[in-house]
Write a structure and sequence with these properties.
The chain is about 50% helix and about 10% strand. The protein has 8 helices and 8 strands; from the N terminus they run H-E-H-E-H-H-E-H-E-H-E-E-H-E-H-E. The model has no long low-confidence stretch (mean pLDDT about 90).
Amino acid sequence: MYIGYVSRKQLGKGAVLFLCLLIATIGLYGFYQQKEMLVLSETVYKPIYQGDTSKKAIALTINIDWGEEYIEEILGIFARENVKVTFFPTGKWASRFPEKIKLIAEKGHEIGNHGYSHPHVDQLSKEENKQEILKTQKIIKDITGKDTTLFATPYGEKKQHVIDAAGELGYTTVFWTIDTIDWQKDRTAEVIADKVIKNAENGAIVLMHPTENTTRSLPIMIEALKNKGYELNTVSNTL
């Protein structure tokens, strides 16, 4: 009888010990899960301003929220020069001109994401920024069948929560090395081309828009950059 009583007592102690170990294990697992989630939540996404500086290559980019009347002429210049670039249209523009988005894709150019409505993104919440990006992503994919992976912020705004919104959606945010400031009306074709030619360097990312003078500057710019030995390519192929 005594032996049986001791066995039950020992069994009870064993059960308590097992329960304590189980609770401790669950507690440790929860601690490390929380720690991992904290690390993930503290991930800082960084934008890019320049591609691979070991490559003698330059990426031409064109942000689009207007200027549709110049798109086909611009595409014609790139076709004649055998140059591929990256276009960043807004979703609003893409939904208005799906045939131009389709043409850009058919010509083999890269298409990025410029948000939907071209708002001041620094003033939007992270979630609002995500919705701007996702709405445009769907529009472009519906037209081209391809996802976008590069994001150019409207107005070049760059608060960290904007970069994080894109990063959490799997996007790389792209800024520029050379800003042509071609949206200013006093920027002639020669001034635009000269700005790029004089500041050309390995991995440079050039920001442009579809304006009349930008269109006129492209043949000058492309010829000079090629003569300097630069390959002109998309952002993805310049990284």
